[in-house]
Write a structure and sequence with these properties.
The structure is a single chain. The chain is mainly α. The chain has 9 helices and no strands.
Amino acid sequence: MNIYKFIALLVLTTFLMGSSFAIVKLGLPYSSPLLLAALRFILAGMMMAVIVIALKRPHPTSKEGWIKILTIGAFQTAGVMGCIFLSLRTITASESSILTFTNPLLVVIFATIFTKVRYRLYQWCGVLLGVIGVMITMGAQVEIEIGIIFGILSAVFWAIATLLAKKWGVLFDTWVLSAYQMLFGGILLLLTSFVLEQPFFIVNVHSLFILL
């Protein structure tokens, strides 16, 4: 995966995720959060899997390759989206999106700690300004709600997924990686739904429209 494809994929993902927070908030009266996330990404993953198979895109040929895609899916889809959907039970869509999109700040911090990447002073100033900006936007909120914790965790998982994708992404076709990390992540969300919540999905025109 070259840098231009990675940036394009990141921009597309950011656009889709940014536009989905409000829609997901509307969907929670009709479904438990983890089940809604699971259905969404299993459906999307299956559709993309059919496409990449039909187009004969190169798939991993080793067990290690599939495990790496599964690991990225565990963090990027299951971890990030599971926490986002859970956060929306108690905080607003805008608050959840602000917390989630602090992940670039965490990427800088985690890369420094775990991969020994060195950043310049002005880059660290950018991180500091970003943190201050989040605090101002959130109204310097000091009361910690469970939704805020899940919002922060979604950013943590996304930062980890970003570093993993940067390390392993060159090994895979971009669209194959996208398809199966969503499918695997969706399956993990489905399993988690049956363990951590009482899953329900009310089938009607509104819920199906929101899901799609």
